[in-house]
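Hi support team,

I've been running sequence recovery on a batch of backbones for a student project. Most finish fine, but this one hangs at about 90% for roughly twenty minutes before it completes. I'm not sure whether the input is malformed or the queue is just slow. I've pasted the structure tokens below so you can try to reproduce it. Let me know if you need the job ID as well.

Thanks,
M.K.
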């Protein structure tokens, strides 16, 4: 009689001596012992009856279930002996695959890294290594297994976030806030404490919204990035790291205000402040308004005087080009050197000292082709008069 007691039920894979419990590819309970594998044939109240999973082999095994611990002990082997030799190598591979499958379902660790970790951990015999599938093929198979566990993308804002998606790969909190906005939408902010700490320490913060890689039920993904100089042996490397990710249901000023306030509240809870010297973003009008709303930039009634809001030169350049196209000048820009030259002069105004921008605009108004008159007037009305030179210069 065997008295191997297991600490987990049949749903898991647990090695105790030479015994393992797992699942077959079709989901049936599988017991592995001494190079032989048995599938569950039937079960009673406390007894489980197993049969060798090799075709034409009628060897059996009986286990008793311990009700108090929900573990199992092997009671007796059947009278019929195996018709084949044991295969320790195949059993090792089955244990390895079962462990990887379990982690693939329960964790968000990249599949390739997960496979590599388990291969190091299990220390397979040479025979098992020869029988094992190529790692690249295993990655594809386990990726399909993970895909089965990934929930469908929600079709409405009324959904519950699975717990594993609220944590980092290190099982730390990742979901910072999940709130209903003033306008009735939903605002999700994701950031770990480590990321927040880096964000709040950074003097320069970059933020941007993207609309193309966001689920349809949300309007945009808005990200905050820290600016950092990594001092190397010979070079100072400038790096930008993503620190916070916000899913926004709309582009309303109140939503941006709430997003900023949530970050400031998180800073207070970490006994610090969210007050970078410079906050650089695109030229989203709602965000610009949000930054100037009185309560958006007050922390316990104290103004954040060190934070200067600047626009991104990349977005400034793209905004001017889009306007040029909307004015019907796309073909002229392609074919006429004058149009190209004066449009580039307009972009270059952002690189001049602030006190020289007005004179530069007057020179552009005098020298640009007549067909660019509406475009140049737009630059003056919107970028000079409405947005203000300090935002984009």
């Amino acid at each position: 009689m065997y008295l191997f007691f297991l600490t987990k039920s049949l749903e898991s894979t647990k090695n105790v001596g030479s015994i393992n419990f797992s699942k077959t590819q079709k989901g049936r309970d599988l017991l592995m012992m001494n190079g032989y594998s048995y599938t569950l044939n039937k079960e009673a109240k406390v007894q489980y009856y197993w049969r060798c999973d090799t075709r034409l082999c009628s060897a059996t095994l009986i286990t008793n279930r311990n009700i108090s611990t929900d573990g199992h002990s092997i009671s007796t082997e059947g009278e019929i002996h195996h018709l084949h030799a044991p295969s320790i190598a195949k059993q090792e591979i089955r244990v390895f695959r079962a462990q990887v499958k379990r982690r693939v379902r329960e964790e968000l660790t990249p599949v390739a890294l997960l496979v590599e970790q388990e291969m190091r951990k299990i220390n397979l015999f040479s025979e098992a290594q020869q029988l094992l599938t190529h790692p690249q093929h295993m990655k594809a198979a386990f990726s399909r297994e993970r895909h089965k566990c990934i929930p469908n993308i929600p079709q409405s804002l009324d959904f519950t976030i699975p717990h594993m998606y609220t944590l980092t790969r290190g099982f730390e909190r990742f979901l910072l806030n999940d709130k209903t906005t003033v306008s009735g939408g939903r605002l999700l902010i994701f950031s770990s404490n480590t990321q927040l700490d880096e964000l709040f320490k950074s003097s320069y913060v970059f933020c941007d919204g993207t609309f193309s890689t966001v689920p349809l039920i949300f309007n945009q993904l808005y990200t905050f990035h820290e600016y950092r100089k990594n001092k190397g042996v010979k070079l100072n490397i400038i790096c930008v790291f993503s620190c916070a990710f916000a899913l926004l249901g709309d582009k309303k000023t109140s939503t941006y205000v709430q997003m900023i306030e949530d970050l400031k509240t998180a800073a207070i809870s970490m006994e610090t402040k969210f007050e970078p010297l410079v906050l650089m973003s695109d030229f989203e009008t709602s965000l610009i308004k949000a930054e100037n709303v009185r309560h958006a930039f007050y922390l316990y009634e104290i103004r954040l005087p060190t934070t200067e809001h600047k626009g991104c030169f990349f977005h400034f350049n793209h905004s001017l080009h889009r306007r040029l196209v909307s004015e019907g000048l796309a073909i002229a820009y392609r074919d006429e050197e004058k149009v190209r030259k004066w449009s580039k002069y307009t972009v270059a105004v952002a690189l001049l000292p602030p006190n020289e921008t007005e004179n530069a605009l007057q020179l552009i108004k005098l020298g640009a082709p007549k067909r660019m008159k509406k475009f140049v007037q737009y630059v003056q009305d919107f970028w000079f008069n409405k947005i203000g030179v300090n935002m984009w210069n």
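--
Follow-up from support: It reproduced on our side and the slowdown came from queue contention, not your input. The chain has 13 helices and 16 strands. No action needed from you.
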